[in-house]
Amino acid sequence: MLQLRDRIALVESALQNLEEVDPAPRPRSILHDDPPARRSLDYRFDKIAREVDAAPSPTPAQEKANPFDTATSTALESPSTKPPFYDSIAASFGLGIGGEDDDFADYLVYNAFVTNLRVCPVDLTATDHYYYLEHRSFLPNVPGVNLRLGTDKAGKSVGVAHLALIGRNTFGVGDLDNDPVGVSWGSMANAGFWTHMRYDFEFELGNERKTRKFCWIRTRNNLLDDQGDLVLVEDGKEHFILAEYLGKGLLKWKKRGRLRIRKMQAFGERWELIVLLTWGSVVELSRRRARIRRYSPTHIISI
Asked: Composition bias, kind Polar residues: at what positions (predicted)?
């Protein structure tokens, strides 16, 4: 065994030569059985010391889930979970809004005489909020849409709309037959360039009589139908739907669709009449274009 002075001499010699020297060398047999760890450029190839314990295996709670087990298979997806609307515009507005929300007044739209419509509340026990939309086409100096209270054309007129062949349309809320001076007028026009997908209108609402701008937007066309689904939004607040109309499509012998109107106390009592009147105007304009396409195929009519 080396003496203390010999160890000190070895350390001083190693410091001078910059070499690592084991002051207590082991027997040759041990050196052959356990060679020194090799230092490589990549630590993954270095030999791990025996005194270091291996990492414990993870428990089932610590293991990561297989992503293929949690992925939803579109082939096995049930029909009830599929998105009910194929149109991207309809999906962005979320047709079928509200569910059983009490903030909406629900109406069913029925076919009446020829082109007229009857709007009735879903709750048939209600005694009010029945409306009759009288549509007239190509009659001079006669409103194209006449909104009446009740279930037939004998009811009181509460709003009219003049639908022009080109240019802006005008609509008014009030009794044009008995009090034409008291009718409040607004304007509505097609905001699209090539299509009739969007109709903008302005009207004074609320106690402060502030002019607000709204938009009826067609979200999709129904199969073999002369009118599409619509949503009503305020300009600049497209994420907040104020009204929605869903048509029945091909199966519309008696019932044409469902209309939902959001209850807005801040807009005043005329809010529901304005929605019904402008909605009826957009529907009538759409049906007029459909009749022209149907009976005049040589005309080039934008859709």
From this structure: 69-80
